[in-house]
Amino acid sequence: MPYKTNILQSNKNSPSIPSNKFLSLLMSIFFVARMTRWDILWDCTYMGSRSSNPTEFDYSQLIIILRYLKYTIDKKRSINCNGLQLEFYVDAAHGLHNDGKGHTGFEIRAGDDCIFCKSTKQKVNALSSTESEILALAESLTYLDWVILIYQDLNIDLLYPIVFYQDNLSTISMITNGPQFKRAKHMLVKVNYSKQFIDDGKIVAKHVFTDKMRADHLTKPIHKDPFYEFTDDYYK
Predict the structure, then answer these.
(1) 163 forms bridges with which residues in the sheet?
(2) Can you tell me the distance from the alpha carbon of 151 to that of 145, in angstroms, rounded to the nearest whole number?
(3) 218 and 162 together in one domain
């Protein structure tokens, strides 16, 4: 993250603080993040993993987020309504958290506008980056189904298949052809759930390189230039 380079670090020597003090500020920032400031969404969800035993160091990271919000207060969400066709980007960071769990990030777009995004810690440990991506894709598809239902209620016609962008070729191969290795059998349900969308013609996978993965900033800190390239798109 360009305004905060040490959020992944922790200072074990830092004194503990009351969790209610930490949570009060975190949830206030998180409300802003969920409503309009998706550029700080990953930071809030990651700092949530520190809420059980927060320290003064962790609290200082929240203050840095507030400082960033102060100096970017002019950023406002805008939707140009120049298209309603859906597409979505799905990404995951494998083993990002201290307990070895990964982090999911995805955004659903209508035309050139992002209409929904999510950043969350994965609930189970994955053995590889491909497994992390499968977990992320299966979760994103539940939200895509929800958006499709909204479109149907509004009588908006969708052009199928909906393109989803993925930067992991093994993930694309697995959900297109099904699990090809015995060691992937434990992912069978989530793989087949994702594959069903492809078999039904609802979605189609398209590979994209990491430097063009718009959901990258929702999974981990990234360099300054791609961060602003992806997040400024929310406030164009």
Answers:
(1) 87, 204
(2) 10
(3) yes
Q: How many angstroms separate the CA atoms of 89 and 110, rounded? A: 12
Q: Which domain holds residue 43?
A: 19-71
Domains: count for the chain:
2
Instruction: From 71, 106, 136, give the residue that closes a domain.
Output: 71
Asked if the structure places residue 93 within a domain, the reply is yes
What is the DSSP code string of the chain?
-TT-S-TT---TTSPB--HHHHHHHHHHHHHHHHHT-GGGHHHHHHHGGGTTS-BHHHHHHHHHHHHHHHHTTT-----------EEEEEEEETT-STTS--EEEEEEEETTEEEEEEEEE-SS--SSHHHHHHHHHHHHHHHHHHHHHHHHHTT---PSSEEEEES-HHHHHHHHH---SGGGGGGHHHHHHHHHHHHTTSEEEEE--GGG-TTGGGTS---HHHHHHHHGGGG-
**pLDDT tens figures, 133-174:** 999 999 999 999 999 999 999 998 889 999 999 999 989 998
Amino acid letter for position 67: R
pTM of the model: 0.89
Q: How far apart are CA 159 and CA 203, in angstroms?
A: 10
